[in-house]
Amino acid sequence: EHVSYQMKGLRARMDHGGRVRIWDGVAKRTYGIDPASKTYTERPYEVDTSTPDGGSGWARAGRTDVIAGHPCVVLETTPKPASKAREEACLATDIEVPGFGASPLTGLSGLRMRLVVVDASGVEESRTEVTRIEARSVAESVFEVPAGYAKSGKP
After folding, report:
1. What is the SS3 string spanning 74-126?
2. How confident is the model at residue 54 (pLDDT cuts 50, 70, 90)?
3. Is 45 helix (H, G, I), strand (E, B) or coil?
4. Rounded Cα–Cα distance for residues 26 and 135 (Å)
5. What count of Cα atoms within 13 Å lies in the side-chain half-sphere of residue 120?
């Protein structure tokens, strides 16, 4: 399954499965856009910065990796007692992503290059991994709700 991210300054856009998610670090809002119904949702985009991990449960795993040619720091969640499921992520330390990504949640700055979800028995449930990064100019309109879309009350 293909996921596409576009980033510019404090704004990011993810296209996935016919839907769009926009994070606007300037306006401190996030938008969910449904092109099929020409609707969107809007929510506040706030991160708890009172603790180094933002209360996220992420911690450094003590390992590094290289993904798509970029060095990464491996992070993992502490399994919750009820489920014992866990997640592992890898943040690229050479790609600055101000106002977006996991940087406020981990004390690290960088783009999430991989996310792996493992169930309670240790079986991998899902994996998302960056395969290519391309530097290019991105228009500001990419990070805006298209004209004529109606605001929806449901998330």
Report:
1. EEEECCCCCCCCEEEEEEECCCCCCCCCCHHHHCCCCEEEEEEEECCCCCEEE
2. very low
3. coil
4. 21
5. 5
Average pLDDT over all residues of the chain? 82
The Cα angle at residue 142 between residues 136 and 146, in degrees rounded to 5: 165
Upper half-sphere CA count for residue 133 (Cβ side, 13 Å): 14
Secondary structure of residue 130 in the 3-state scheme: coil
Distance CA 102, CA 8 (A): 16
43: enclosing H helix or E strand: strand 39-44
pTM: 0.69
Q: Cα dist. 64→18, 89, 93, 126 in Å?
A: 33, 11, 10, 20
Would you say how long the chain is, in residues? 155
Look up tokens 């449930």; give the residue. Answer: 125
In the numeric block, which tokens belong to residue 93? 């330390």
Number of neighbours of residue 8 by Cβ within 10 angstroms: 14
When pLDDT is averaged across residues 105-119 and rounded to a whole number, the result is 77
Query: Which residue type does 49 have?
Result: T
In one letter, which amino acid is 128? T
